């Protein structure tokens, strides 16, 4: 259940009540694709850095170690020793990203595993069954993510099929939640809005899925090649047609600037691999902008990554030491950088929630962007 606490313009401050705890929104979900955050980050670490929701991927866990095995071992929460909410992505994005390895049909998608090449079939029912085996808090509907440069006729057909798939997902989840051996009988379902950068297709689809009374709604298929102006325009067009009393999730986005702009347009949930991926390469987020620890100027810099930051890296270690670890290819260097970046994101979300509650979101956003040297409206996913 979603409770709207405060609106500041279109920015929403809410609480999302789940069987695994209450999520304070807006929220950034920390991405652990295969049930782990890349960079040797433990679930104890996630608690320290203020993680509210962990996100894992249905397709990847189905391929390895197998969702049936995870179910036998008590579900994903027990498997990875994490008692807070988990959202599982449906595998639909792999339909897009594994383009050379798949074939889309009405019944679902035929894949070849990126791990061992074996043939896999996944349709709406299979995706729901896998996610039920994983027993995540929130399951995502199975969809197709059409390319942002796809022809209009292709996008129309794709979106119509995604709607039919969503109806099948909803029906199958209701069946699975009623079964005696289902681990999480309170599993929630989010539908996904698609339509590339065609505003009218997006709006029509948003209206259609809003009628289906789901637990939440996602905007998918953005930050995959279109400009950030196009992305923000689509968000502005779609959000008013999704239920304000349900959470809105912008999938796979993005930079701190992207998130600040998304919140302003009414988005509640975000996820992105940026903080972890950039951290593993020594690129660190601070309130003064991004720094690259591989730069020689940090060789003798005994300051923390960011003065005043309370993350595990900044409380104890210097830029010089972490730079040395990265150069020496020591795992600890990557780990400390990832912890800092995730802490930065999670702390920024706390600040966002506080600013909305105070009715001061616009001034907070402008100050934050100015401090980070992002006076424009952000950068697209492909720019980093």
Automatic annotation (TrEMBL):
Pfam families (alphabetical): TGT
InterPro entries reported for this sequence: ArchSynthase1/Queuine_TRR, TGT, TGT-like_sf, tRNA_ribo_trans-like
Domain tRNA-guanine(15) transglycosylase-like: 10-369
Pathway listed: tRNA modification; tRNA-queuosine biosynthesis
Lineage: superkingdom: Bacteria
Cofactor(s) the protein needs: Zn(2+)
GO molecular-function term, one example from the UniProt record: glycosyltransferase activity
Binding site for substrate: 89-93, 143, 194, 221
Region (RNA binding): 252-258, 276-280
Top EC class for this record: transferase
Protein keywords: Glycosyltransferase, Metal-binding, Queuosine biosynthesis, Transferase, tRNA processing, Zinc
Reaction equation(s) it catalyzes: 7-aminomethyl-7-carbaguanine + guanosine(34) in tRNA = 7-aminomethyl-7-carbaguanosine(34) in tRNA + guanine
Free-text comment on the cofactor: Binds 1 zinc ion per subunit.
Protein residues bound to Zn(2+): 309, 311, 314, 340
Family to which the UniProt record says this protein belongs: Belongs to the queuine tRNA-ribosyltransferase family.
Subunit structure: Homodimer. Within each dimer, one monomer is responsible for RNA recognition and catalysis, while the other monomer binds to the replacement base PreQ1.
Known function: Catalyzes the base-exchange of a guanine (G) residue with the queuine precursor 7-aminomethyl-7-deazaguanine (PreQ1) at position 34 (anticodon wobble position) in tRNAs with GU(N) anticodons (tRNA-Asp, -Asn, -His and -Tyr). Catalysis occurs through a double-displacement mechanism. The nucleophile active site attacks the C1' of nucleotide 34 to detach the guanine base from the RNA, forming a covalent enzyme-RNA intermediate. The proton acceptor active site deprotonates the incoming PreQ1, allowing a nucleophilic attack on the C1' of the ribose to form the product.
Record-given protein name: Queuine tRNA-ribosyltransferase
Source organism of this protein record: Maccoyibacter intestinihominis
Organismal lineage: Bacteria, Bacillati, Bacillota, Clostridia, Lachnospirales
């Amino acid at each position: 259940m979603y409770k709207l606490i405060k609106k500041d313009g279109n920015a929403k401050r809410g609480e999302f009540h789940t069987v695994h705890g209450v999520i304070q929104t807006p929220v950034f979900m920390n991405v652990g694709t295969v049930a782990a955050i890349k960079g040797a980050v433990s679930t104890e670490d996630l608690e320290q850095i203020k993680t509210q929701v962990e996100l894992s991927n249905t397709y990847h866990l189905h391929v390895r170690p197998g969702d049936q095995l995870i179910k036998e071992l008590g579900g994903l929460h027990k498997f990875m020793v994490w008692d807070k909410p988990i959202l599982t992505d449906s595998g639909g994005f792999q339909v897009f990203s594994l383009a050379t390895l798949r074939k889309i049909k009405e019944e679902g998608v035929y894949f070849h595993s990126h791990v061992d090449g074996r043939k896999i079939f996944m349709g709406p029912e299979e995706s729901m069954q896998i996610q039920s085996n994983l027993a995540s808090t929130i399951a995502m509907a199975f969809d197709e993510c059409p390319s942002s440069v796809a022809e209009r006729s292709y996008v129309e057909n794709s979106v119509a099929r995604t709607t039919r798939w969503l109806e099948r997902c909803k029906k199958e989840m209701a069946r699975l939640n009623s079964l005696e051996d289902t681990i999480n009988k309170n599993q929630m379902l989010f539908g996904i809005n698609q339509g590339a950068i065609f505003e009218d297709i997006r709006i029509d689809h948003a209206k259609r899925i809003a009628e289906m009374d789901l637990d939440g709604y996602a905007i998918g298929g953005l930050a995959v090649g279109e400009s950030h102006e196009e992305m923000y325009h689509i968000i502005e067009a779609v959000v008013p047609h999704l239920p304000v009393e349900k959470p809105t999730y912008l999938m796979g986005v993005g930079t701190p600037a992207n998130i600040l702009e998304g919140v302003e347009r009414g988005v509640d949930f975000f996820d992105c691999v940026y903080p972890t991926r950039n951290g593993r390469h020594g690129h660190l987020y601070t309130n003064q902008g991004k720094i690259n620890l591989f730069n020689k100027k940090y060789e003798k810099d005994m300051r923390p990554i960011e003065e005043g930051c309370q993350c595990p890296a900044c409380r104890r270690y210097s830029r010089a030491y972490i730079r040395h670890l990265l150069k020496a290819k020591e795992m600890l260097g990557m780990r400390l950088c990832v912890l800092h970046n995730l802490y930065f994101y999670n702390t920024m979300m706390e600040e966002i929630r506080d600013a909305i509650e105070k009715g001061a979101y616009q001034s907070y956003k402008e100050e934050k962007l100015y401090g980070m040297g992002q006076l424009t409206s952000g950068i697209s996913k492909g720019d980093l």
